[in-house]
Design a protein that fits this description.
71 residues, single chain
Length: 71
């Protein structure tokens, strides 16, 4: 919205997205799921991606985000 700070817009969008549930996933096969789970475990993804929807609903700031937001 014109005249609104960028963070105001992003926080509003993030708050809305936090209320949404992901669509059900139609798995192709068990082997693919097992391979993905093994990678998820090995990379320690659950350190940040946990809970029912694998999110903590926190915005994580990084250099990539700073570069993206400066566009």
């Amino acid at each position: 919205s014109p005249g609104k700070p960028l963070a105001y817009e992003l926080n509003g969008m993030s708050a809305y997205q936090n209320t949404l549930s992901p669509p059900p996933y139609q798995s192709a096969d068990a082997e693919t799921l097992e391979r993905g789970a093994a990678i998820f475990e090995k990379a320690n993804c659950a350190t940040c991606h946990s809970g029912r929807y694998f999110t903590n609903h926190h915005v994580i700031s990084s250099a990539a985000d700073a570069a993206r937001l400066s566009i």
